[in-house]
Amino acid sequence: MTAEAWSLQGNEAPREAREVVRNLLVDRPADVVEVAILLTSELVTNAVVHTHNAARMEAATEDDMLRVRIADCDSSLPELMPESFGRGNGRGIAIIDALATAWGVERRGPVGKSVWFELSLEGNRSPRGLHRNGATGASPARSRTVPNAPPAHRPRRALAGPS
């Protein structure tokens, strides 16, 4: 799997990211494409709104799985907010948590982070919700790393909070 990368910036970033995912999934079921576009838009919007800066998006498909990673220069981690009926914002990570097959957060050096999700591209599979523990959706079973493993084979690490 080779992930393609795009630099996204400004008010047009979510629209551009949606278009990238739509083009990547052109031959997939419409319902899956809609969910993938929604999840991507939520992550990109979070990155652009909260950092007021550019974000980097990587997206790839492999074995009926879409993987999208959004990297930004803000070290603050996203939070899974308690449900609040009628709240106008703060629901992005809850949407990711509810619809993604898996998701997590990785710190990028001293400054920045990557927020990622995986989505099954098989239209009849429901999300597994693998990461659902605490603010970032960390799963103890998947929170270890394998030293020197290539990135595509390294288990994803979701952080439970600042270190």
Strands, helices and their partners?
Blueprint: E1 4-8, H1 13-24, H2 30-51, E2 55-62, E3 65-72, H3 92-99, E4 102-107, E5 113-120
Antiparallel strand pairs: 1-2, 2-3, 3-5, 4-5
Radius of gyration: 15 Å
Report the span from N to C terminus.
31 Å
The largest sheet has its strands arranged as 1-2-3-5-4
**Low-pLDDT residue spans:** 125-163
Helix/sheet category: alpha+beta
Order of helices and strands: EHHEEHEE
β-strand number: 5
* CATH topology grouping: Heat Shock Protein 90
Query: Count of DSSP helices?
Result: 3
The proportion of residues in beta strands is 15-25%
Question: CATH homologous superfamily name?
Answer: Histidine kinase-like ATPase, C-terminal domain
Task: Tell me, rounded to a whole number, the average pLDDT.
Answer: 75
TL;DR of this structure?
The protein is an alpha+beta fold and 163 residues long. It has three helices and five strands; from the N terminus they run E-H-H-E-E-H-E-E.
Protein traits:
3 helices, 5 strands, disordered C terminus, five-stranded antiparallel sheet, alpha+beta, Heat Shock Protein 90, globular, 163 residues
Structure description:
The structure is a single chain. With 163 residues, the chain is an alpha+beta fold. It has a single domain, classed as Histidine kinase-like ATPase, C-terminal domain (Heat Shock Protein 90, 2-Layer Sandwich), CATH 3.30.565.10. Helices cover 26% and strands 21% of the residues. It has a five-stranded antiparallel beta sheet with strand order 1-2-3-5-4, with helices on one face. A hairpin with a 2-residue loop joins β2 and β3. α1 packs antiparallel against α2 and α2 runs antiparallel to α3. The C terminus is likely disordered.
